[in-house]
Amino acid sequence: MQPNAKVHLCFVVYEYLPHFSSAEEMLDDLFTLTDTTEALQQLDFQVSVVMRFNENISLQRHGVHYHGICDRFGPRLKFWQMPRLVHDKVLALRPNIVHTHNMNKVLQHNHLANRLSGSIPLIVQNHAEWPAKRVRILLQRLVFRKVAAFLFCAKGQEEQWLSTNILRPFKVHFVMEGTTHFKPQDRRRSQQQTGLTGAPVFLWVGNLDHNKDPLSTLKAFDEILHDYPAARLYMVYRFAPLQAVVQEFIDASPRLRKSVSLLGPKPRAALEVIYNSAHYFVLGSHREGSGYSLMEAMACGCVPVVSSIPSFRMMTDDGQIGALFPVGDVEAIILALRKVLDEPWLEHSLAARQQFEQQLSQGAIANKLSAIYLALLANNRL
Length: 382
Fold this sequence. Notes:
With 382 residues, the protein is of the alpha/beta class. The protein is 41% helix and 18% strand.
């Protein structure tokens, strides 16, 4: 690396969704990645992204260079499929650090690490993956010795990887996997724009599936409506395998029929004003890599009422912001909802926004990543 030269970061994306008609459309959907790469570019890193796609493309957006690589494989790589063309491009870019995602891509990471030959640090980001079983766990132990660092969103997510001796503690770091540029707006004006009204307004943004557990939240909200009949819950979701069950449950309760609205999928451009129409954000996830919708909600000043899983505990400062509840515990959800409703909303809203700025914003995440990158480079020179 030349003196005074910018540190060159290269992010690698192994999978894509087939329905995108253009690279720009794909990047719009990869906002968790692009918001972070653009923030790093503003810290004066040189940033490249090499991603598998259905055509070969090269474009620059907000100072970040994106390279789409078309190979003979489908959108999702099978365990044994090796994206050699992607790795060829990574090597051709001559980065100082390579940052990949998905700890289940063991053979792919092994091939890339061998190509980097230890001279370029390789970082792997966890996205709620769990350790393998049986023979594959031995493979993970061998391959991950070649990886310089592993990133988890929150303490607790790394425990199974450490207890199975796949990872070494000194290689584990904690940093959010993405960030957002959403900001708070005037709530009354936002509600006029979206038509979301209630006293207060609760918002759910998450799939209607077993992992998110919408039924436990609806059961608790049904009880809350006894004392807060003007409260309203709006549910935004992209995938809904439980939609019929959820709709049936709502229809069976006169209170819920009046007070819960299933909004379905919303374009990302509309989400910011929707968050800003709500007072509280509620979600009952059993498991998350991060929980991006919670971060977006806090960026807009929504007070969180969420399940006590590692990433949510981290984002809410262990429940100091809003309230936490044990996964699937309806009575605990009722207590958590009552807690936030009995306390001043504005105070908690400002605290949520402050927590976002200090720990979860583009600047905060970029600074944390920068410190990890620079420390790895310093160690690599020793």
